[in-house]
Amino acid sequence: MATKSVNLRCLQNTSFVQSRSSFHLSRPFATANTSTDLSPRRSQKEFRDSLKNGPTLSDFVSAPFSSQGDSPLRTAVVGPPGRRKEFTRLPTWLQTPIPNNANYKKIKADLRGLNLHTVCEEARCPNISDCWGGSDKSAATATIMLMGDTCTRGCRFCSVKTSRAPPPLDPHEPEHTAEALSRWGLGYVVLTSVDRDDLADGGAAHFAETIRKIKLKAPGMLVEALTGDYAGDLQIVEMVAGSGLDVYAHNVETVEELTPMVRDRRAGFLQSLRVLKKAKETKEGLITKTSIMLGLGETEEQLWETLRALRKVDVDVVTFGQYMQPTKRHMKVHEYVTPVVFEKWRRRALEMGFLYCASGPLVRSSYKAGEAFIENVLKKRARQGDLAMTATAGELSERLIV
Asked: Most CB within 10 Å of its CB: which of 46, 148, 257, 279?
């Protein structure tokens, strides 16, 4: 009798489990679609096509803005109560489009494929979309940064990585650089480099070899070299200036009074003037060039004195640009200078005798308009030299005939 009752209970439990199981299986999940809509789902191709033909990133981030400096500066207050801070928003004349076109991606792929670095990326240049975004690669410009992406100096305005012991130089970099530039077919190129105080010659031999290889692969290409001060060693400056380049650039960055607060302690305003002077003396006809940032707290009189000092060492080209704080760790912007003020300093520089001056909020040391002007000047000089040589040869032949 006991056995029967146990079996009965087992049967009862089994039926209960089955009923519970059927109950759970018949209950729909909370996320299940219980609708009776049987319309066909879109294919993956249709979905991709709708994304391709839909709005792009530019439609969301682009907005009309004024580049004339006639818009008032805007401020914003941020922070919790009791610790609120007011800061100035980026002026409209400093806003630039986000680089996202096809040519930008092509140039970036070329650079990564050859393991090359550019100051455009490392220094977070705001003009990268303009310089890299030409209609084709031959219309674009990129400033190649030699000797790696790590600098031995720590200037307070610069966002390039720093280290006391950067990685060793890439012995293939001169060849790769020359190959990339000859592949693009540019008429004017700019080379720069990080400071390498860990090397005996500051990397000058590496720099000079790169210039020689470029001239070997593309003899008609004009080369501008934006160099460091090589710790004031003028013999090293002479080696680079005599390597075949066409424009020797070295930036004083700011006025003499602000140099200790802005640049690395190993740099100096007078030291930079000596570098520019030595480069000018090394090669006849060599164009020398420098750049000054505004908005660091400089005064008008200090800028006048800086321009006078540059003319004394016969600097040909000067550029003015707005200092923009790359990260919160770098020195703050003292003032956003309007385009009207930049235009005033451009006129003043030309009146003082500078061959060319590029001046504007977004102007940087390597600037497309300035490069085009210098290229035309150099080609004009070359033509004049050819005509002079032809005339001299004609005079000699006439004398021999007589």
From this structure: 279
